[in-house]
Specification:
By secondary structure, the chain is α/β, with parallel strands linked by helices. It has 16 helices and ten strands. The protein has two domains: 1-308, 3-Layer(aba) Sandwich (Rossmann fold), CATH 3.40.50; 315-358, no CATH class. It is 38% helix and 18% strand. The strands form two sheets. The protein has a six-stranded mixed beta sheet, sandwiched between helices. Helix 6 (102-107) links the parallel strand 3 (84-88) and strand 4. The two termini are 21 Å apart.
Length: 365
């Protein structure tokens, strides 16, 4: 496929691997932030092909995975109400709460629907004025513009039967939290290309300078990832702590200003709980006061609902790069895709799901 096949070229991948081996003089630990990158790395065996001196650890870049358990429980409570049509991206339906998920709510009679855009959910609200339509607004900066636009459009049209559960999180505060941990081992980052397409990469420059880590925005295909790893190793070997963009076909330093303005119009920064990790100050987005009428958690009076994680689930350590999924005692035992303990086992971007589906040994190019 044009513009895709060249980023899956085995010959070019081999050359990049050879160059990584040639320039590496010591051990380095690199974190890919995005869960989509994690799945591509595992699916293509990149982690097995790298020299032993390069360790990839997997970051908290799966928005479904870091949506706090209390938000899941509140969503389940709202979705079960007879007057509600509950809408979400498909990934969220399998994310376990304390005792059930959204698929189970649907099997019990709840009107739970998969949509492909928050604007689809808004159209459902237009078409069903006698129902309350709720959208689960989950994501990193990538989904924030569309989620903001749905709320903005609802307000413009006076659509009062539409609301959102907001679980929007941001990448740079999570990176700072990881790097500030006394247990941190991360020495360089592959940044998520789609997030940088929206926000640009200028906001990563203070992180690189302040924590002495190189950051390389890159894409999701094997050649993208290997090129990103090579550049990160080059910067580490040379002691250069800066941001180098390797996803120029999509990403600019400034990002998408229109999308950023849309986010700023509807959302403001807030502290946010991350599932398995805890509170990260200034890491989330919440509705501004003028749009508070579209806050489903307040509208349905579920803000009091809290929940505790399974003591067996170690996804928080996985999401911070402290533990590989298959090192968790519950992995593929008490925790499987059919009976998950946490979201990392069922999300299409979850690291535990990637290991369960793809992790093998014996790759060669």
């Amino acid at each position: 496929m044009k513009y895709i096949d060249e980023y899956r070229d085995p010959q070019l991948a081999r050359k990049l691997l050879d160059e990584i081996r040639r320039i590496t003089t010591r051990r380095w630990t690199i974190m890919e932030i995005c869960g989509g990158q994690t799945h591509s790395i595992l699916r293509n065996g990149i982690n097995q092909l790298l020299p032993d001196t390069i360790e990839l650890v997997h970051g908290p870049g799966c928005p479904v995975c870091v949506t706090p358990l209390e938000s899941i429980e509140r969503a389940l409570e709202i979705a079960a109400k007879k007057e509600v049509i509950f809408t979400s991206f498909g990934d969220m339906l399998r994310v376990p709460g304390s005792s059930k998920d959204l698929f189970m709510v649907r099997s019990e009679g709840g009107d739970v629907r998969i949509v492909f855009s928050p604007l689809d959910a808004l159209q459902i609200a237009r078409d069903n004025p006698m129902k309350e339509v709720v959208f689960f607004a989950v994501g990193f900066e990538t989904t924030a513009p569309a989620n903001a636009m749905a709320v903005y459009q609802a307000d413009r049209e006076g659509i009062n039967n539409f609301s959102v559960i907001v679980s929007q999180v941001m990448v740079p505060p999570a990176m700072r939290a990881i790097l500030s941990s006394p247990d941190n081992r991360v020495q360089g980052f592959l940044a998520a290309g789609h997030v940088c397409a929206v926000m640009g990469y200028a906001e990563y420059e203070p992180v690189a300078r302040g924590f002495h880590v190189p950051i390389v925005p890159t894409g999701f295909e094997p050649v993208d990832l290997l090129a990103g790893i090579l550049k990160t190793v080059e910067l580490l070997e040379e002691g250069r702590f800066e941001v180098v963009n390797l996803y120029g076909r999509v990403v600019s330093r400034e990002g998408n200003r229109v999308a950023q303005d849309t986010i700023a119009k509807v959302f403001e920064v807030t502290d946010r709980q991350w599932r398995g990790i805890g509170l990260i100050p200034g890491s989330g987005l919440t509705l501004k006061a003028e749009y508070s009428g579209y806050d489903a958690e307040t509208k349905f009076n579920v803000t009091h609902i809290c929940a505790d994680e399974s003591p067996l689930c170690m996804s928080g350590s996985v999401l911070q790069g402290m533990l590989k999924p298959d090192a968790c005692p519950a992995f593929a035992r008490e925790c499987t895709p059919g009976h998950p303990l946490g979201a990392t086992m069922v999300s299409s971007e979850g690291a535990c799901a990637a290991y369960y589906n793809y992790h093998r040994t014996g790759y060669s190019l």
